[in-house]
Amino acid sequence: MSKIETMSVNAIRVLSADAIQKAKSGHPGLPLGCASAAYELWANHMNHNPADPNWANRDRFILSGGHGSMLLYSLLHLFGYGDLSKEDIMNFRQLGSLTPGHPEYGHTVGIEATTGPLGAGMAMAVGMAAAETHLAEVFNKEEYPVVDHYTFVLGGDGCMMEGISSEAFSLAGTLGLSKLIVLYDSNKISIEGSTDIAFTENVQKRMEAFGFQTITVEDGNDLEAIGRAIEEAKEDTEHPSFITIKTQIGFGCPAKQGKASAHGEPLGEENVLAMKENLGWPSMEPFYVPDEVYEHYAHLAEEKAETEAAWNVMFAAYCEEYPEMEALWNAYHDENAGEKAIEACADFWSKPEKADATRNISGKILNKIRTCMPNLIGGSADLAPSNKTNMSDMGDFSRENRGGRNLHFGVRELAMTAIGNGMMLHGGLRVFIATFFVFSDYTKPMARLSSLMGVPLTYVFTHDSIGVGEDGPTHEPIEQMAMLRAMPNFHVFRPCDETETECAWYSALTSKKTPTALVLTRQNLTPMEGSSREALKGGYVIDDCEGTPDLIFIASGSEVELAVNAKKLLADRKVRVVSMPCMDLFEEQSAEYKESVLPKSVRKRVAVEALSDFGWGRYVGLDGACVTMTGFGASGPANQLFEHFGFTADHVAEVARSL
Fold first, then answer.
1. How many other C-beta atoms lie within 10 A of the C-beta of residue 5?
2. 99-118: per-residue pLDDT in tens?
3. Which residues pair with 193 in a beta bridge?
4. Residue 23: which of 80, 74, 84, 94 has the closest Cα?
5. What are the CA-CA distances from residue 461 to residues 383, 409, 434, 522 (Å)?
6. Separation between Cα atoms, residue 568 and residue 562, nearest integer Å
7. What is the spatial order of strands in the sheet that 180-186 belongs to?
8. How far apart are CA 382 and CA 6, in angstroms?
9. Which residues of 104-142 are buried (b: 16+ CB within 10 A; e: fewer)?
10. Which of 26, 302, 354, 615 has its CA 20 to 30 A from that of 71?
């Protein structure tokens, strides 16, 4: 390692330690231990351009161990990303700063994914690698590899302990995603001490079993060995690669090196000074970095810019020779692709003709839109025949067919969701995922990241209530609706018929920053006479009375018809029925619109939904009532279950009269 390389690596350590010490909060262990590996990767093996952080063919880098965020912020600052200044580094973890505690996508330039929940970055990296290979199949021509980049992800023992990494890596190995390269920070330390207390498996053997090439670097500070390992990983075009890099947590700090206490607390002022002295740092001044180090990083950044410039020349020639591919490229990367696709789909909006399950209707809509929206890709957690999410004649994405648009995630709901996030984050694709609604529990942590990142991933959740029937309470969702409705920036759409299902898909495919869940039935639903595109407002009057109502039914999904039928039994009352397919969208409407649908003067209100009542209080108030589920359902024919749990017109009308 040359002197300037040593200084450049240690600059990462010093900035990280000083920022964490100033904040009196943070995780210095990973930045100190992984500084050498990160420097070698970013300086010598990763194609990226600080002057153009969104360059389409850049290599992606995800810090799965997001607690070590100062490693990433130090790299971004030193390479000159987006003018991330020294003041930004000094404001680490402060309110409103560009350097929050964990990396946040869309908040800080150069951050490819929001990470923090361990293992999540590993799975999102699998999604990015899958997106790269699919887009390469679509766009690359002989002598024009316009999509040709790697996905690198760095994580540690915690990421490998979390089950999501095994789910995702199992699929990555099956698919042979050879441009996925995992850097494993193996320091044998967790918060509670040595990993031997809970984690003694042979990780390399596990990764081999998944279908990865495995490589080991014995010294985490040996830049040449790290570089050789990365190049060896790139040479394998059949398997993803897993590089174990043996490091020491908190490297360079004599009192903390190799100890659990280096993980999640500042080193202490005396220990920071001792670290600088131990590393031979030329100044004890906080945040000091020598000019020659900045000059070295600037030179590296200039070289990176040259790589993009060469790609730009190639891409221009590609567009000139293949103008139809340029048009397709622009269509894939158009943020308004959803609106344009639906406009081009002549029969997207169709008149309901017969009773049908909304899962079936959804499947028909998906197969209408598939040809109009060529960048639409997705699949199910081994439930496509039940979720109705197979796109006819679009092929299956596999090791042999990278161009296939039907994804098979296997029974891996958690990883599926993260992989969907990763594919969307990569850019160029519109992705949907699917499973039974009750198993949205398995998707929740990564759905939360969709919301947090503003990634408009589409979730298709079928078998939405006790209508599941014979499978019983383990498969009958109850509280899941409330769980997802409680999440900020997440639209939960439970349509009552074909028209509302079309609105749900329209809303999902045109959303720019908000993920959408389509919650769909197994049982047939009757087309509702009053249903309309007003459903795009989240809630609307589907069946009204003359004048001001004295009672309002509010329902979603299969219970809208039930509410309408209950109204017929209350001929002596002025009753309005409101369909509320998406509370979240309704709350985004103006106060005037919401008042027109649910006048405050009408206090007698009944919510009807075969799910938990949690969340309905804001609409029914203290004077209202709910016909909802209070238990976990039962096993039996669906029609018997609805009657057993009180979802009949007679019972709903009786509850209304009791008001």
1. 16
2. 999 999 999 999 999 999 99
3. 190
4. 94
5. 10, 15, 6, 10
6. 10
7. 60-63, 151-156, 180-186, 241-246, 213-217
8. 49
9. bbeebebbbbbbbbbbbbbbbbbbbbbbbbbbbebbeee
10. 302
**How crowded is residue 402: how many other Cβ atoms within 10 Å of its Cβ?**
19
Please give the mean pLDDT across all residues of the chain. 97
**C-beta atoms surrounding 284 within 10 Å:** 10
| Residue-range domain boundaries for the chain | 3-305, 337-525, 537-657
pLDDT for residue 364 is more than 90: yes
- Quick one: fold of 337-525? Rossmann fold (3.40.50)
Query: 112, 413, 476, 561: which one is catalytic?
Result: 413
pLDDT tens-place string over residues 379-421 = 999 999 999 999 999 999 999 999 999 999 999 999 999 999 9
CB atoms within 10 A of CB 556: 28
CA–CA gap between residue 252 and residue 262 (Å, rounded)? 11
CB 553 within 8 A of CB 542: no
With 0-12 CB in 10 A as exposed, 13-18 as middle and 19+ as buried, what is 611? Answer: buried
643 is catalytic: no
DSSP assignment of 390-424 equals: --TTS-B-SSS-TT--EEE--S-HHHHHHHHHHHH
Tell me the CA distances in angstroms from 278 to 35, 49, 263, 273, 525, one per residue in order.
Answer: 16, 33, 19, 9, 72
CB 581 within 8 A of CB 538: yes
Domain topology for 537-657? Rossmann fold (3.40.50)
Which residues does 359 contact at the CB level (< 8 Å), separation at least 6?
A: 386, 387, 388, 462, 463, 520, 521, 522
Tokens encoding 619: 């609409």
CATH no. for 3-305: 3.40.50.970
β-pair partners for 407: 379
Determine the distance from the C-alpha atom of residue 616 to the mean position of all C-alpha atoms in its chain, rounded to a whole number.
27
Lookup: tokens for 627: 């016909």
Q: What is the pLDDT of residues 523-578, one digit of tens each?
A: 999 999 999 999 999 999 999 999 999 999 999 999 999 999 999 999 999 999 99
Whether 337-525 and 537-657 share one fold: the answer is: yes
Q: Are 537 and 577 in contact (CB under 8 A)?
A: no
pTM score over 0.70:
yes
φ/ψ of 18, rounded to 5, equals -65, -40
Q: Going by C-beta distance under 8 Å and a sequence separation of 6 or more, which residues neighbour residue 637?
A: 469, 470
Q: Look up residue 644 and give its amino acid.
A: H
Which residues partner with 147 through β-bridges? none
Between CA 208 and CA 173 the distance in angstroms is: 9
Count the Cβ atoms, other than its own, within 10 Å of residue 344: 12
